[in-house]
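Researcher: Go.
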Amino acid sequence: MPARGPGAALRAPRLPGRALSRDDRRVESASMERALEEEVERYVRTGQHDNHLYVGWAGGDLFARAENAREVLASALVAEVRKRAPQPRVPSALRGIDVVAFGRATVAPMVRGLFPRAEQERVLDLLAGSVVFLTPANIESILRQMHWLGTAWMLANLYLFSFGAEMLSDEAESILGLSEETTCYVSVKYFTHRGRFEDFLVHEAAHVFHNCKRQTIGLTHTRRREWILEIDYAKRETFAHACEAYSRILELGKRPAERRALLSELERERLPREDRVDPGEYVDILREAVAARNGWKRILARCAPARRSPHARLGTA
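Model: Structure:
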């Protein structure tokens, strides 16, 4: 479907209490159209928009106005992405790849280490089908179908960064992956620019564990065991980073001495650079994982929510 300009979906609001002359209506309509055009420009530039009630957009109710607004904003986003990255080259390793099989093989060691045998296949099926590499073939449909406009804007920047194109804002994060519910969007840089201790497919897959409920994929669940894995909210990034690094340590080091040496190398050269991860705790978790028989379980234990005593009383220290 061809992209539409903002004017195609605009409707001037009716003011209660008095009838407007033809000239007044014309001026008001032009003013509203300019305001919404500015809103489209602001969204493409920043990923934000202020008009959350979608006043002025075509449609008889809030739902219809929101749909029209999203269509116009997404069209503008797609047009700008195509303009900035008109003919990006897809890495040869991605051409003809079976993404489901590739994703399954990549996350299998993590799943086998974290879950009992009876649950492993269900979790593997979920993660294998969750992987999406952002390419010229799918970027338009993904941006248009994304429910959250802010997420669409972040994915547009992820895509532009993947192909070395100018991002939409100097404030945009140079991310290589993003998880939304049970979908893992991954940069094509996975096949060309991965560091020695990087696996951002594993990183994003680790986030799915706290985004999806066990009941959704047919796993047994209780009130205290609602999510696929219970991860402390403040340690979600720590958990994902630790899983990412540990997966690479296991892949690169076949013997305990090799894994200890790799951890020392990581500690010197590749610590996470973000506020949500404490470097000292991150290294300590990996040190414990490398020394354990099943390091995945140690990572999970260190990132699990603190369990309150059933006898604890409210209001006591």
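Model: Confidence is low (pLDDT under 50) at residues 1-15, 309-317.
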